[in-house]
Amino acid sequence: MPTPAHSPITAGTTCTGSEPGDSWLTEEVQTPRTRCYRDGLLVGEDFSLADVSEHLEAADSVVWVDLDDPGEDELALLAEELGLHELAVEDALSLGQRPKLDRYPDHLFLSAYSAALDPATSRVTTHEIAAFITDRALVTVHRNGRFGVDAVVARWDSSPDLAKNGVAFLVHGLLDYLVDGYFEAVEALDDEIEELESQLFVPTADQEQVQRRSFELRKSLVTLRRVILPMREVVNTLLRRDLHLLGDEMGPYFQDVYDHVLRAMEWTESLRDLATSILEANLAIQGNRLNVITKKVTGYAAIIAVPTAITGFYGQNVPYPGFSQEFGYYSSLGLIVGLSALLYVLFKRNDWI
């Protein structure tokens, strides 16, 4: 696979230039967010796309551009300016990609997802973000304003001492935000599963609700696993030295993100197995309760069969000891009570009723 060859010219064209023919792009893009770092210091923010090239004239400048709901024309012009591969542009337009990191001659293309758990429904919601990574620029693309860009910016602002590491600093802040979101979602799912476990052996618990909840939690864990599992390869690829993205200072930070991804993945796998066990245990408990009920009903049916048999025998229209005599009534009544009591004691002693 070819090694990215970054250049200041490519980075500068992350945004539209100042050519008259490009001015329409600035008007069409909906409130883009921009930042410029120079020598590790934030020197500009929320400037227009037309000013990006001016900010990148300095060799030590790094620019971030965030595009929310960009149109096809905007990304097409951006691809022409940056020399982006048509497949990467297509992925950024269509979204719906699996988490991945694609390498192209002049840039990297990142596709990833944020994740959060809705406590009301126990469902994991995901929001996709695509990113073009050059040596001096990071361009993020997402839809409908649902991705937490403000949280990513806050993550960058909390570590200003790392800003001197350029694009690697920006990419780390983005990945760190994503992975922390995975941990929060997994932790919330863990709490939900613990609560569900406590309801398993409660006699008054709504077993149908327990069954439905366990199925929803397992489905959410499958969704979360589908998001986290490919991120392991994404971060592992970024750690490779041949990408020339990481310096010595940022290496440990990306390694820390990689470790967190592995932990989140392992936690998700264990919770998925636990949710499956709860689902199976709930079915087994319902089966056991049904067996107990069936056993008790059978026991009482055996007791009821005694008076039925005796009264049926004494109801025969043929002579027998006590036929048409008063003592025959009392003897049959005694047999009914005595045998029924004996069966009840025996069944109770053997825990059959």
UniProtKB/TrEMBL annotation:
The chain crosses the membrane at residues 297-315, 327-347. Residues 1-24 are annotated as: Disordered. InterPro entries: CorA_cytoplasmic_dom (IPR045861), CorA_TM1_TM2 (IPR045863), MgTranspt_CorA/ZnTranspt_ZntB (IPR002523). It comes from Cryobacterium mannosilyticum. This is Magnesium transporter. It is a multi-pass membrane protein. Belongs to the CorA metal ion transporter (MIT) (TC 1.A.35) family. GO terms for molecular function: cobalt ion binding; cobalt ion transmembrane transporter activity; magnesium ion binding; magnesium ion transmembrane transporter activity. Keywords: Cell membrane, Membrane, Transmembrane, Transmembrane helix, Transport.
